[in-house]
Design goal:
304 residues, alpha/beta, six-stranded mixed β-sheet, 11 helices, binds adenosine-5'-triphosphate
Length: 304
């Protein structure tokens, strides 16, 4: 089932066309909204929230049209914006409770949910600290807790690792993955970092100049055009030679071979040749493109 579905969505800001007919589908799990700066990611998140009306096309979010049923949609969405304006003197718990109350939770429930959400994001011990005394990583987590406090079914995170050091980034990505998989909340993660999307997302929507150039599950997208990658003990030269003699197209890089052939044909040939040469196989895996390959291919296709 689609959590968000966009059909030819257009949004113009004056002379600038931020979205130029974006068509896509976002399902359960964690979906990366990937694109360079200015590609239209934040604009799209605002439209999913029902904050901006499309100039063309349509959006469906949790079965509703956000430009008509904005408040109803926002009740069910948690949003952590890219830039924060968190009040420095307010304790994290008070802020998250207050935002939960704004979402309509009664005081007692908002208090309980604020504590739960802050524990969920790893700030349980720190929850009564003023936000101004917290690190950037902790403040990003406060935003996440605030977005989670009213029990949303969909979470929109705009560049949630901005300003984090590598260790904080790693743990934020881990947390996002857990939210998407263990808490059962659908997550849309806007990012301009391929590697980040590749690590945590199940699916991706790639935006370029306001248009969706690729979308789908990462597994589908990364599946190359067949073939195997083989890593052997020692030099792979003799194995490459034998496979080429058998008519296969093989590239060698030290102990690693990339074989372009139907997977089962390549696997049989590798097994036979390795047994014949008594070469140890350390790794045999399907050839897959990286998300970077996919991304670069779409950029090329888009420019042609
Ligand atoms: P970034 O990662 O830099 O935030 P983005 O992919 O989120 O980029 P948007 O912020 O959606 O992209 O911006 C898309 C285009 O629309 C940009 O050219 C931007 O300058 C323009 N834009 C966005 N919001 C507004 C606005 N409120 N008024 C005018 N132009 C805007």
């Amino acid at each position: 089932m689609s959590v968000v579905r966009g059909t030819a969505v257009v949004k113009r800001w004056g002379e600038t066309t931020a979205l130029a007919g974006a068509t896509f589908r976002i399902g359960a799990g964690v979906t990366g909204l990937l694109g360079a700066n200015g590609a239209g990611k934040t604009t799209l998140l605002g439209m999913i929230l029902g904050l901006h009306r499309p100039d063309g096309g349509s959006l469906e979010v949790l079965g509703l049209d956000p430009s008509i049923a904005g408040p109803k949609v926002r009740e069910r969405i948690g949003y952590a914006p890219e830039h924060d304006a968190l009040p420095p003197d307010v304790k994290a718990h008070d802020l998250v409770r207050h935002l939960a109350e704004i979402h309509g939770l009664p005081n007692r429930e908002a208090t309980a949910r604020a504590s739960d959400a802050l524990w969920q994001v790893g700030l349980g011990e720190e929850r009564f600290r003023p936000i101004g005394t917290m690190s950037t990583g902790q403040r990003q987590r406060v935003k996440l807790a605030a977005a989670l406090a009213h029990d949303p079914v969909l979470l929109l995170l705009d560049e949630p690792t901005n300003g984090l050091d590598p260790v904080q980034r790693e743990s934020m990505l881990d947390l996002i993955r857990r939210i998407g998989h263990e808490f059962g909340i659908s997550v849309v993660l806007s990012s301009h970092l391929l590697e980040e999307v590749e690590r945590v997302c199940d699916g991706v929507v790639i935006l370029t100049d306001g248009r969706v150039v690729t979308e789908g599950s990462l597994d589908e997208l990364r599946t190359g055009d067949g073939g195997l990658v083989v890593v052997v003990d020692g030099d792979a030269g003799p194995l490459a030679f034998r496979l080429r003699a058998a008519g296969l197209c093989v590239e060698q890089d030290g102990s690693r071979l990339v074989i372009d052939a139907a997977e089962d044909v390549a696997a049989d040939a590798v097994r036979d040749a390795a047994a014949h040469l008594d070469v140890g196989l350390r790794r045999v895996q399907r050839k897959t493109a990286t998300l970077e390959d996919v991304f670069l291919a779409t950029q090329g296709a888009d420019r042609e």
